[in-house]
Backbone:
């Protein structure tokens, strides 16, 4: 989710510079809502429900890894290869920098396969036919440089275009109607792995402080994160509302927020993509590369934290030095400037 959201500003800039180009995207099916509305059929061409890309190609690589030799995997892979070859693309660009994404890029049979000179997974560079040396610090800046290489453009990061799903928007209107002098705040206590996860008890203390300041607090619960949201709700006596929703609904809801509070997670990057203020709570990942971008934000990170993507289960030591009062102070500054 984060990789797609980080790529969106660059691809939106490319679309704005070349509105008549055909721009297609290969994506895992579960992330479709970031590119096309879930409640509407996929279409050929662009509209508010599919504003950025012309066609979506689905690569269910997560399922393929679980059953690499199954008949279904074989047929899906073969169909993807056929569709990509039929596209007769002039260029294919890998904005993820992983071996998996680079292999998918080569699957199109295109003469121009473009990627970073120093991608996230170094071995991926040998699958690129053109390597671009990027100078930007943040991954969004790097993606803009990479996309600029397609036609020699000097592109700049822009606010990305995300789809508008009418069904999800109607749902969000009911969940979060406008209320004067009662800011809407979303807390996301989950994270991709334990070392990035600030304790739920501390999120609960932040939620309680926000409720006392007159805020409406929602707690996002991704798959498997429901116990974290329930803990926060119980610690606030039910004042904070747990929320399990689809990705399309999360997009619609985020549009209505006054603030999002989270670690280095997809919902934080979604809030940034939609221009909502955020408080980022960072530990082992580097906010200069993966932090909030393109919106109002405050990042909390201990000087003791060092970049480390090892997927430890326990929270990183520097992350634990951040206290609820620190987060509340940052939130208040953004909510009541």
Residues:
């Amino acid at each position: 989710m984060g990789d797609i959201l980080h790529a969106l500003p660059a691809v939106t800039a490319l679309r704005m510079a070349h509105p008549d180009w055909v721009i297609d995207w290969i994506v895992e099916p579960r992330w479709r809502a970031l590119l096309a509305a879930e409640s509407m059929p996929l279409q050929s061409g662009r509209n508010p429900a599919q504003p950025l890309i012309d066609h979506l190609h689905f690569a269910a690589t997560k399922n393929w890894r679980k059953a690499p030799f199954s008949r279904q995997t074989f047929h899906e892979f073969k169909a993807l290869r056929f569709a990509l070859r039929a596209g007769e693309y002039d260029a294919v660009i890998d904005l993820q920098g992983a071996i998996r994404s680079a292999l998918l890029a080569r699957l199109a049979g295109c003469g121009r396969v473009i990627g970073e000179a120093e991608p996230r997974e170094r071995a991926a560079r040998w699958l690129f036919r053109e390597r671009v040396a990027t100078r930007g610090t943040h991954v969004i800046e790097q993606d803009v440089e990479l996309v600029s290489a397609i036609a020699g453009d000097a592109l700049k990061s822009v606010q990305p275009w995300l789809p508008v799903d009418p069904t999800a928007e109607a749902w969000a209107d009911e969940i979060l109607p406008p209320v004067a002098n009662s800011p809407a705040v979303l807390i996301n206590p989950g994270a991709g792995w334990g070392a990035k996860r600030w304790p739920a008890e501390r999120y609960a203390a932040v939620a309680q402080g926000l409720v006392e300041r007159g805020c409406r607090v929602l707690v996002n619960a991704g798959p498997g994160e429901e116990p974290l949201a329930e803990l926060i709700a119980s610690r606030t006596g039910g004042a904070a509302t747990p929320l399990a929703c689809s990705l399309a609904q999360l997009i619609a809801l985020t549009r209505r927020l006054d603030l999002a509070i989270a670690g280095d997670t997809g919902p934080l990057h979604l809030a940034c993509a939609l221009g909502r203020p955020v408080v980022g709570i960072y530990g082992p990942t580097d906010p200069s590369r993966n932090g909030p971008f393109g919106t109002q934000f405050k990042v909390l990170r201990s000087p003791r934290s060092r970049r480390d993507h090892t997927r430890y289960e326990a929270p990183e030591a520097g992350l634990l030095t951040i206290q609820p009062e620190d987060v509340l102070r940052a939130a208040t500054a953004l909510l009541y400037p």
